């Protein structure tokens, strides 16, 4: 029997990532992005937009994230797509539609394309809660990057080592 497990070590050829970031609530999403980049960088990834390992796509809000994530995943250029957003409930039922569609859409893109798509969209009741998850009490952006590294590495292994039945 074989155990497949993603690692955080360097992979050859080098991993490539796309990051989709929602501008809505950019007070929060900018901080998620900064931690995500910091984590990737500390794992040897060149995060510069001018480099060859990470590309960035900005979208108006979390609702638009899945469409752009799908286009990027279909390009066959990336080992994983990281989606960053912040949906904050406030006083409006809009929250449920935006959060629900973003979550369903991101999951669908991964399953439809076979490319890992990381759900890095915070869903919180208040701005305070979102900020706590984006720097005040740890930063989830760091963990989304770790998830992307692990899944990218795991999928590389599965593609190359999985014996056919
Ligand atoms: N988009 C977000 O990313 N977060 C939110 O909290 C939010 N709220 O609350 O409305 C939000 N709305 C915009 C939405 O994502 C779309 O950009 C818009 O509906 C246009 O399609």
What does this structure look like?
The radius of gyration is 16 Å and the shape is globular. The strands form 2 sheets. The protein has a 4-stranded parallel β-sheet, with helices on both faces. It has a single domain (30-153), classed as 3-Layer(aba) Sandwich (Rossmann fold), CATH 3.40.50. Helices cover 46% and strands 20% of the residues. With 165 residues, it is an alpha/beta fold. Helix 1 crosses helix 5 (140-161). The longest helix has 22 residues, at 140-161. It binds 5-nitro-6-ribityl-amino-2,4(1H,3H)-pyrimidinedione. 5-nitro-6-ribityl-amino-2,4(1H,3H)-pyrimidinedione is lined by residues 22, 24-25, 60-64, 85-88, 94-95, 98.
List keywords for this structure.
165 residues, alpha/beta, Rossmann fold, 4-stranded parallel sheet, 6 strands, 46% helix, binds 5-nitro-6-ribityl-amino-2,4(1H,3H)-pyrimidinedione
Largest sheet: 4 strands, parallel
Give the helices and strands as they follow along the chain: EHEHEHEHEEH
Q: pLDDT under 50 segments (min length 5)?
A: none
Strand order of the largest sheet: 2-1-3-4
Shape: globular
| Unique bound compounds | 5-nitro-6-ribityl-amino-2,4(1H,3H)-pyrimidinedione
Strand content: 15-25%
> What is the share of helical residues?
40-55%
Average pLDDT confidence is: 95
From the N-terminal CA to the C-terminal CA, the straight-line distance is: 13 Å
Let me know the number of strands.
Answer: 6
Number of domains: 1
């Amino acid at each position: 029997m074989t155990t497949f497990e993603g690692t955080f070590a360097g992979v050859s050829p080098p991993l490539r990532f796309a990051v989709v970031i929602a501008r809505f609530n950019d007070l929060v999403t900018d901080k998620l992005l900064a931690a995500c980049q910091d984590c990737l960088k500390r794992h040897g990834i060149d995060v510069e937009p001018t480099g060859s390992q990470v590309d960035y796509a900005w979208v108006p809000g979390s609702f638009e994230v899945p469409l752009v994530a799908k286009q990027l995943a279909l390009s066959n250029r990336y080992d994983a797509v990281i989606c960053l957003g912040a949906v904050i409930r406030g006083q409006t039922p809009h929250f449920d539609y935006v959060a629900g569609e973003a979550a369903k859409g991101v999951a669908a893109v991964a399953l439809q394309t076979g490319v890992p798509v990381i759900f890095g969209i915070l869903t919180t009741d208040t701005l305070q809660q979102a900020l706590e998850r984006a720097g005040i009490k740890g930063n989830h952006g760091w963990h989304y990057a770790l998830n992307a590294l692990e899944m990218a590495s795991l999928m590389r292994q599965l593609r190359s080592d999985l014996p056919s039945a």
